[in-house]
Backbone:
């Protein structure tokens, strides 16, 4: 393969992304200083709904928080040990174990003691989701807890069977009653409607950012995307995140127009799967030595992004209810839209069949023009490793080269860096790519 | 009298084949006890729970990542090895992620004529769950009716409900008998009586249960020595329970899905038949994957321990079972608070009987230590 050198440049909005993330964790920690409220819940929680309680209600979403712990390997080790010492199994979700450890140690990853939430607002699709905060309530005194079951089957079926959407909407309505009881505040539907619009804007814009990576050279690499998609996992219904994703989308469009690459020597495009081993993101830089760029994953595209089939047959950002002219004037309308919108999330479909995920991955392989796929057999997350072995078989059957590596997103004792690099070397060789300086 | 249950357990596949031949009916393999058997029975279908065989196997590695529970891999192995080749269909009621993989891989790789995924609610404690489940049961009833070629009538449902209720009531009576100071049957016998009911025609099985109940008074009573309870995930490991009881104990009750969780409560018959079935499954002693936000299992387990005079609890779980692993520390703590010691053991496809025996011996010795000193 010929050497290429695309132009590259840093993202202009990078500093803004870092600022938003930093402020998010500070706002949560300091909420009580100004009479505000703190809530804890998963990255997939319907964060738009607690926003109806007022402008001073701050979330701490557990998975990205735990990933931040995992990135700090020394702190993570102490968290995992604290959890194990309390009697919890080592094979449980490693995000959960890191989070519980931070609570048990009473140490906040961003400094100071662990800021206790005023209430818990969770959702449940993976077996661990609801249990996560049940245990938090074991470890802390009775924190008011509400959790919404969203496991109603794949979106293609649910949208034709409205009782499934209604089940979620009913729980949402009851959840608002819970929020009023737990906080003593009066709920403001106007704030809810605004937040749902933000959610739709943010998640659609993120899908467009991801879709722009179909371009060769890719304007973004996955390691960079991790630092950007995380904002959606923190607070997708906030105006700041929605505005930021639209700003980012405009910048990425500009990069595409000018041919700006994330990796100047891009010659090979792959995607990964599920969360990476957060303490070892340097493996992405290792791949880049070969000119191999991970242009994303179903995880980075579909964990937060809202997608739809476009008239030309491609996969692109879902049309927002605002653009479609769907009425959103009442609480019930807003909740229905939120439930329907969220059920289409690509990363929720494989919970019902690995074949739905395989189809999506094959679609990405085609539209994003990939040479291969790297599957992370992630011991830390049963939800996103669900069906991964069947995904491997399906991708191979379709003729796509697949590399498998085993690890753990949040427990570095289960990741072997050298062995993974060796696998990357072999995978690159199998794709006919030589390390720089080794070209024939 | 209990030999019949042991025989059914051992020859379950032969039984199902013979049943098909005898009745001309269809057989459905199911993966979780949240499957509403009432509706299958109403349609004249034999529901057969898919269980593992507790043998080492090497066929599931390409299909299920090794971090998922041994039970789901063992179940899939049975399908891949063709041991359930008599099934006309398979189904699952949505429960844990682990067993779901056995179902989805089975659908993909083991030829079967009919399959059904019943999206059972997880938030069973929510009042939103009932209308949702009732509608899912209606869709399921229609699907089964379409499959067997005739609609399921109210009379059919009444029959299905009555059949299951009679079966469950008989098992409750059997378990009641184990409260006695000298129980008339041991834990292995009780477990086989329950688990065989998961793949034998319920009417036939209830008849056998009734015969056993009638004969209990004449049975030689057993000195239980130490009264134990089993708590945890699916467990039909006969050899393990036999070993525990041989160490000087008797299992008198349990909380797992091859035990009380399967049969504990009945459908309360009513005009709204699907609503009545929904109520039964929403209020049954839950699998931990559905037991939230309140952990209702803890008071239920303590109540069982109290009423059956339990002196010690063996907490057993399938390795990698996250819902159980999240409950275990709370359960052990609650038992400790009540002065009930517990032993935690992790199940794999095969059980290290030697190691477990050493630990069980030590556990039983600990329980009797007060008597010694």
Residues:
């Amino acid at each position: 393969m010929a050497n290429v050198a695309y132009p590259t440049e840093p993202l202009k909005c990078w500093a803004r992304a870092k600022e938003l993330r930093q402020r998010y964790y500070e706002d949560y920690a300091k909420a009580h200083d100004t009479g505000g409220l703190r809530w804890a819940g998963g990255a997939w929680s319907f964060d738009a709904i607690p926003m109806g309680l007022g402008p001073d209600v701050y979330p701490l979403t557990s998975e990205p928080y735990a990933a931040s712990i995992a990135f700090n390997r020394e702190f993570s080790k102490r968290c995992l040990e604290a959890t194990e010492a309390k009697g919890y199994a080592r094979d449980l979700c490693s995000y959960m174990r890191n989070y519980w450890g931070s609570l048990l140690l009473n140490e906040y990853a961003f400094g100071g003691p662990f800021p206790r939430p005023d209430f818990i607002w969770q959702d449940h699709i993976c077996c661990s989701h609801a249990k996560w905060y049940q245990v938090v309530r074991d470890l802390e005194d009775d924190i008011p807890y509400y959790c919404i079951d969203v496991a109603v089957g794949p979106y293609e079926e649910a949208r034709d069977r409205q009782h499934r959407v209604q089940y979620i909407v009913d729980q949402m309505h009851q959840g608002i009653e819970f929020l009023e009881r737990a906080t003593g505040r009066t709920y403001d539907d106007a704030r809810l409607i605004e937040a749902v619009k933000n959610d739709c804007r943010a998640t659609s814009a993120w899908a467009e950012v991801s879709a722009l990576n179909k371009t060769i050279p890719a304007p973004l690499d996955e390691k960079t995307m991790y630092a950007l998609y995380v904002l959606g996992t923190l607070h997708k219904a906030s105006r700041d995140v929605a505005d930021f994703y639209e700003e980012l989308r405009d910048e990425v469009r500009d990069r595409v127009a000018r041919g700006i690459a994330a990796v100047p020597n891009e010659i090979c495009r792959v995607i990964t799967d599920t969360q990476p081993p957060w303490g070892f993101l340097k493996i992405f830089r290792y791949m880049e030595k070969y000119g191999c760029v991970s242009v994303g994953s179903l995880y980075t595209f579909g964990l937060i992004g809202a997608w739809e089939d476009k008239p030309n047959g491609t996969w692109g950002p879902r049309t927002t209810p605002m653009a479609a002219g769907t009425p959103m004037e009442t609480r019930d309308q807003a909740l229905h839209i939120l439930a329907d919108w969220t059920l289409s999330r690509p990363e929720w479909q494989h919970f019902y069949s690995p074949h739905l995920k395989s189809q999506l991955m094959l679609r990405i392989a085609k539209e994003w023009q990939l040479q291969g796929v790297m599957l992370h057999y992630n011991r830390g997350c049963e939800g996103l490793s669900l069906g991964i072995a069947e995904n491997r078989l399906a991708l191979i059957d379709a003729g796509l080269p697949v590399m498998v590596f085993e690890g753990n997103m949040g427990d570095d004792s289960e990741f072997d860096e050298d062995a993974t690099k060796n696998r990357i070397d072999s995978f690159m060789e199998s794709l006919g790519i030589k390390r720089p300086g080794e070209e024939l | 009298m209990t030999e019949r249950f042991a025989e059914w357990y051992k020859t379950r596949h032969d039984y199902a084949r013979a049943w098909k031949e005898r009745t001309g009916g269809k057989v459905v393999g199911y993966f979780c006890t949240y499957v509403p058997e009432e509706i299958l029975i109403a349609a004249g279908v034999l529901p057969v729970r898919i269980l593992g065989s507790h043998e080492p196997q090497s066929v599931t590695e390409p299909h299920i990542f090794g971090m998922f529970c041994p039970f789901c891999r063992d179940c899939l192995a049975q399908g891949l090895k063709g041991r359930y080749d008599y099934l006309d269909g398979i189904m699952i009621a949505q429960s844990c992620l682990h067993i779901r993989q056995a179902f989805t891989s089975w659908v993909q790789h083991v030829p079967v004529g009919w399959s059904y995924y019943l999206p059972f609610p997880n938030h069973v404690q929510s009042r939103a769950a009932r209308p949702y489940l009732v509608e899912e049961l209606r869709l399921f009833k229609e699907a089964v009716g379409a499959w067997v070629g005739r609609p399921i009538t109210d009379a059919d449902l009444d029959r299905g409900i009555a059949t299951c209720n009679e079966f469950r009531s008989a098992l409750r009576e059997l378990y009641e008998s184990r409260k006695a100071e000298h129980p008339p049957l041991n834990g292995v016998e009780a477990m086989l009586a329950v688990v065989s009911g998961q793949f034998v025609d319920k009417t036939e099985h209830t008849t056998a249960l009734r015969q056993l109940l009638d004969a209990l008074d004449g049975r030689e009573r057993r000195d239980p020595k130490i009264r134990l309870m089993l708590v945890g995930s699916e467990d039909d490991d006969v050899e393990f329970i036999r070993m525990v009881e041989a160490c000087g104990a008797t299992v008198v009750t349990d909380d797992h899905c091859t035990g009380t969780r399967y049969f504990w409560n009945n459908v309360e018959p009513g005009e709204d038949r699907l609503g009545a079935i929904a109520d039964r499954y929403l209020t049954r002693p839950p699998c931990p994957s559905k037991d939230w936000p309140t952990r209702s299992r803890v008071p239920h387990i303590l109540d069982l321990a109290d009423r059956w005079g339990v002196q010690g609890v063996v907490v057993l779980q399938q390795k990698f079972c996250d819902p159980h692993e999240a409950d275990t520390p709370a359960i052990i703590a609650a038992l400790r608070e009540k002065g009930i010691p517990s032993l935690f053991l992790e199940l794999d496809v095969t059980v290290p009987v030697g190691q477990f025996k050493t630990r069980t011996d030590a556990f039983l010795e600990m329980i009797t230590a007060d008597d010694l000193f």
Remarks:
- The longest helix of chain B spans residues 154-177.
- The domain at 3-151 of chain B is CATH 3.40.50.11890 (Rossmann fold).
- Chain B touches chain A through 47 residues (CB under 8 Å).
- The radius of gyration of chain B is 20 Å.
